[in-house]
Design a protein that fits this description.
The complex is a heterodimer.
Chain A (H helix, E strand, L loop, with lengths): L1 H5 L13 H21 L4 H18 L7 H32 L7 H16 L2 H12 L3 H25 L3 H9 L4 H32 L10 H10 L3 H29 L1
Helix pairs in contact in A: 3-11, 4-5, 4-7, 4-9, 4-10, 5-7, 6-7, 7-9, 8-9, 9-11, 10-11
Chain B lengths: L2 E2 L2 E2 L5 H24 L4 H18 L7 H33 L7 H16 L2 H12 L3 H25 L3 H9 L4 H32 L10 H10 L3 H29 L1
Antiparallel strand pairs in B: 1-2
Helix pairs in contact in B: 2-10, 3-4, 3-6, 3-8, 3-10, 4-6, 5-6, 6-8, 7-8, 8-10, 9-10
Classes of the chains: A mainly alpha, B mainly alpha.
Chain lengths: ~270, ~260
């Protein structure tokens, strides 16, 4: 009996979504969406075909990379690094009060909502968009880049620091309050020591991110190597542009290794 | 107060204090170097808050006269993000297979996989967009390719890590029954990686919405094109509406992706 039941039965992999209606429904929805999305994107096959020889031309022009103007490359890079360092320092300091304001357990709810909204707004905009606004407000150059990365740093560090504050051991806060400490002292002696290691780790991580971002804000005129890259690209100077790209990739790679090592050393 | 029986409690040893002092010294030295070296016209810094306030004043109230155009462009931005994420997934799977230590055929393929992961991640979306606009001309196609190429490294890295963390036993069981390589992957590896695969894709989709908002600044489609146009023609009230539209879509995307990720994990 049981033998008969197993014969003619083929084992199938159990599906990821058990409910068949939901499973096929999702597939159908995905297919419908894809059809809609793809049809809404103007795609010109002739343009694509024409693109391949153009790609060959660009890569042909880019190889070998041209490091002859290494002084220009170096000065662009130094500016990027300076922008990243200043922005990280200012941003990390400014993110502390904002993180306190947006941590649910240390401030009243209305303040928390306001703080969180500020952090979310800072986080939602891509640094390049923030950069283009700052370039219009304060002019071309490193200042716009620094302001952009300060906003970027605040959005990221405040959020994670606020989460760290929300996860602290509350016993120390109660002990301080029982001893009669005021609000500021509770923050300084019960909250700060618990989140300090996290904040230093975040600062290093953000420096890593800012070094990376500082290479692109220049594309919209906010200083650093991005401006150099944009100029090279605009003049069809592909071999110099490729040299800059290689340098950016190496910088990103190097900072990733260094910051990883420092963070391991601290924690 | 801190002297107890001739002992004085100190938090850190002399060596620790020295190390901390040295670390602070390095930080301060780097900052001093940066502030002195950076090319800034200091009177502009003093003037900056007034300028920013002035700009914000000119931005309010938001001007909704081109709302239909903005909504259409936002929709295109979301389409770009979604299609790019899907394309990136297709491209990232073989890369993840090569970049995971336990599935990569040999050392050379492992190195190749990791090189692809690092280099696509290091080149920013907007630089990829510059390249694809130069190749395929301005438009959303260049944007999709740019966002997709940027995502390959992120997806490949996280999926490769998931592959490296799988339970070896199902794979060994499959091999012991004589299954070939393709079957081992399909039935031994894929089911274990699938939840991470979905979670990582949704996370990347969320990030890609944000990335897609800037493509238009270099001509690669989406809302950035309108933003650039409004900025260039000094229509600051329209700029503020576009910024509000970006903010709401990004926040909504974050909610959707958080909800979806809870569903799949």
């Amino acid at each position: 009996m049981s033998r008969a039941a197993t014969e003619g039965f083929r084992w199938r992999k159990p599906p990821f979504i058990a409910n068949p209606a939901l499973r096929y429904g999702i597939w159908l929805a995905v297919a419908a969406y894809l059809a809609w999305a793809v049809s809404s994107i103007p795609i010109d096959p002739q343009r694509i075909v024409a693109g391949f020889p153009r790609a060959a031309q660009i890569f042909g022009g880019a190889i070998p990379p041209d490091f002859a103007r290494w002084q220009l490359l170096l000065s662009g890079f130094l500016e990027s690094i300076q922008i990243a360092l200043i922005a990280t320092a200012v941003g990390v300091v400014l993110s502390v009060p904002l993180a306190i304001l947006s941590a649910r357990n240390v401030v009243p709810v209305p303040v928390y909502v306001l703080g969180r909204a500020t952090v979310i707004t800072a986080r939602s905009f891509h640094p390049v968009i923030v950069a283009i606004i700052f370039v219009k407000a304060v002019g071309f150059g490193a200042l716009a880049g620094i302001l952009t990365l300060i906003v970027y740093t605040i959005g990221f560090v405040s959020k994670l620091l606020a989460e760290a504050i929300e996860e602290i051991d509350w016993g120390q806060v109660e002990a301080m309050q029982a001893a009669g400490a005021n609000y500021l002292k509770v923050l300084l002696y019960a909250v700060a020591p618990q989140v300090m290691p996290r904040q230093i780790g975040l600062a290093l991580y953000q420096l890593d991110i800012n070094l990376r971002a500082s290479t692109v804000v220049g594309i919209v005129g906010a200083g650093g190597i991005g401006s150099t890259l944009m100029n090279a690209f605009g003049r069809y100077d592909y071999d110099f542009a490729f040299a800059i790209l290689i340098a950016i990739i190496s910088l990103v790679f190097a900072t990733e290794i260094v910051s990883g090592r420092i963070r391991r050393g601290i924690s | 107060m801190s002297d107890v029986g001739g002992y004085r409690w100190v938090r850190r040893s002399a060596a620790e204090r020295l190390a901390r002092f040295a670390a602070w010294l390095v930080v301060v030295a780097l900052l001093v170097w940066s502030v002195r070296g950076v090319d800034i016209f200091w009177p502009w810094v003093v003037d900056a808050p007034a300028q920013i306030a002035d700009l914000l004043g000119r931005m309010s109230p938001p001007d909704p006269s081109n709302l239909d155009l903005i909504l259409a462009a936002m929709l295109q931005t979301i389409h770009i993000a979604t299609l790019a994420t899907l394309l990136a997934l297709v491209l990232a799977l073989p890369v993840a297979y090569l970049a995971a230590q336990n599935t990569s055929p040999n050392g050379a393929t492992l190195a190749l996989g990791r090189l692809i992961v690092v280099s696509t991640r290091s080149v920013n979306t907007i630089i990829w967009a510059l390249l694809f606009v130069a190749i395929f001309g301005p438009g959303p196609l260049a944007g999709i390719l740019a966002v997709a190429f940027r995502s390959i490294g992120f997806l490949g890295k996280l999926i490769a890590e998931a592959i490296e963390e799988i339970d070896r036993r199902p794979v060994e069981a499959m091999e012991a029954t004589g299954a070939n390589e393709a079957k081992v992957i399909a039935y031994g590896v894929v089911p274990q990686v699938l939840p991470t695969f979905f979670a990582v894709s949704i996370l990347r989709w969320d990030i890609n919405i944000r990335e897609s908002t800037v493509l238009g600044l270099v001509g690669a489609g989406g809302i950035g094109l309108l933003l650039q146009g409004a900025i260039d023609t000094f229509k600051w009230q329209e700029v503020s509406l576009i910024l509000l539209a970006i903010l709401s879509v990004v926040v909504a995307g974050e909610f959707v992706s958080g909800w979806l990720r809870e569903k799949v994990i």
